[in-house]
Amino acid sequence: MAAKTILEVKDLKTWFYTRRGIVKAVNGVSFTLDEGECLCLVGESGCGKSVTALSILRLFDSPPGKIVEGKVLYEGLDLTTCAMPLLRSIRGKDIAMVFQNAQSALNPVFTIGDQIEEQINTHMPHHDRNSRQKATALLEEMKIPEAAEALKMYPHQMSGGMKQRAMIAMGLSCDPRILIADEPTTAVDVTIRAQIIYILQELKARRNMSIIFITHDLSLVREIGDRAAVVYAGKVVEIAPVEHILNKPAHPYTIGLISCLPDISADLKRLPSIPGNTPNPIDIPSGCPFHPRCPSVMDICRTVEPEMLNISGVQIAACHLYDANVTGKR
To answer: Could you report the per-residue pLDDT of 93-152, keeping only the tens digit for each?
Structure first.
């Protein structure tokens, strides 16, 4: 039986209108998320992953930000145009987000317990009397020792790993159907990182929860992801099951990312890298945005933007190399 699609992002464009020009941070992102699936958004810093996540719940500053085109369909409801009171009832309850920097996301003048209980009481008022017990259980689920005492702590009294796990507990407090995790392992050491990945895997399996996991670390994609969407210059350039992305990458950008992974079995004096930098979102190159850095660039790449093409039954990529009308290959 095919999995049910719970979220669909269609040609989403989020632009920021600044004095220097229009920053096209998200410039046509499309993907789907199935029930119980973990979809990884992968790419270099500045490619539009975090703004895509913020756009799903309209959490960016407006102005200067604005969704100029596209749809975000949650169970058929377009989150880009629905009334704000309805969107607020969905935020935190049906779709929750764990932000990248727990230090800045947590309120420094309230205890961890107050912040978790506030979310529970806002979306689940019938749990008002039991919100403290639920908050304690959540911290225990996050493997935080002496959870009842930890609820009385302020954010500055916690380590980076504890703060990050408290943020995840807050995101899970109302039993969301979708959890958006924006690089939740960035500011923690490898031991805590492994714990966070294990916790998310366990929650996904036990609650059948869907996860959008944002990362630039491809080793994490292998551990947690079911499918991966590779993002470049505000667009998804390839999407496929994780094993295809890691073992049979199609788009030259994906191939470049994979080649940058360190390999202890290879006798390399210098780690390979992708030449150049991600494009300025105010001045995105014409044609394929990756063409200035692409080792397989053709003349058509400089002028014509490629469409998403079916590479196999489960893998699609936006690249002229797979267009039979361009290469003459069938």
So the answer is: 999 999 888 888 899 999 999 999 988 888 877 656 688 898 999 999 888 889 999 999
Looking at the DSSP bridge assignments, the partners of residue 29 are 12
Does residue 198 lie in a domain region? Answer: no
Question: What total number of domains does the chain contain?
Answer: 1
Structural contact between residues 172 and 203, judged by C-beta atoms closer than 8 angstroms:
yes
User: What residues make up the domain containing 52?
Assistant: 5-94+177-189+209-262+272-285+307-319
pTM metric for this prediction: 0.91
Query: Looking at the domain assignment, is residue 223 inside a domain?
Result: yes
Tokens representing 106 are 């947590």
Cα separations (Å) of 11 from 69, 70, 112, 315?
A: 7, 5, 38, 18
Report the alpha-carbon angle 68-74-77, nearest 5: 70
C-alpha dist (Å) from residue 39 to 21, 53, 151, 161, 212: 32, 12, 31, 23, 5
Residue 307: DSSP 8-state:
P
| Residue 228 DSSP symbol | E
